Amino acid sequence: MRKLNVTELGRINAEEFKNSTKLPITVILDDVRSLYNVGSVFRTSDAFRVERIILCGITATPDNCLVEIHKTALGAEESVEWSYSKDCASVVNELNKKGYVTVAVEQVEDSIKLDNLVVDKTRRYALVLGNEVKGVNQDVVDLCNFSLEIPQYGTKHSLNVSVSAGLVIWEFARQLKDIF
After folding, report:
1. What confidence tens digit (pLDDT) does each residue in 117-160 have?
2. Is residue 168 domain-resident?
3. Three-state secondary structure string covering 53-91
């Protein structure tokens, strides 16, 4: 086996990305405090052609913290569409009105386990990921159509928010891959 070099990977450039078909997914980061987690979610969102990211609350934006976010995003902050809103609940309410299926990625009663998720290919989704310590705020969980939980089998009760985003986005991409 030989590792492929960057040119052999056949990746699209930022302009082609902007004009490409995207997964019908909006990722919402609410009160994510680590700039490296924000950058990592941008990079994952680029890898799977996520429609956009909405940064809420205390979550930093690339225009304010470019160096730190860029360290893990590696330029994805330039390719993935993003916006900022102070209030996550307002964003979720607005997306609900627009017909999105809103999903809290959180451990709650009656959550759907990630391995039991069935994605409706005719719908658009908004995935809400919360603060590294407190998770998704209860008032936002209450507004979501359902909650998605990543099954875990070790001693820790949670995963890093950027790891959670990667797992969930991957599962949506796996089920929606025929749109590309």
Report:
1. 999 999 999 999 999 999 999 999 999 999 999 999 999 989 99
2. yes
3. EEEECCCCCCCCCHHHHHHHHCCHHHHCCEEEECCHHHH
List of residues 6+ apart from 177 with CB closer than 8 A: none
pTM of the model: 0.95
How far apart CA 151 and CA 149 sit, in angstroms, is 6
Q: Which CATH number goes with the domain that contains 55?
A: 3.40.1280.10
Q: Which of these, 75, 72, 61, 82, lies nearest to 39 by C-alpha position?
A: 72
Total number of domains in the chain = 1
Write b or e for each residue in 100-139: b if 16 or more Cβ atoms lie within 10 A of its Cβ, otherwise e: bbbbbbbebeebeebeebebeeeebbbbbbbbeeebbbee
Number of Cβ within 10 Å of residue 5's Cβ equals 7
Whether 12 is in a domain gets the answer no
Q: Which residue has the tokens 């991957």?
A: 170
Asked whether the beta carbons of 131 and 104 are under 8 A apart, the reply is no
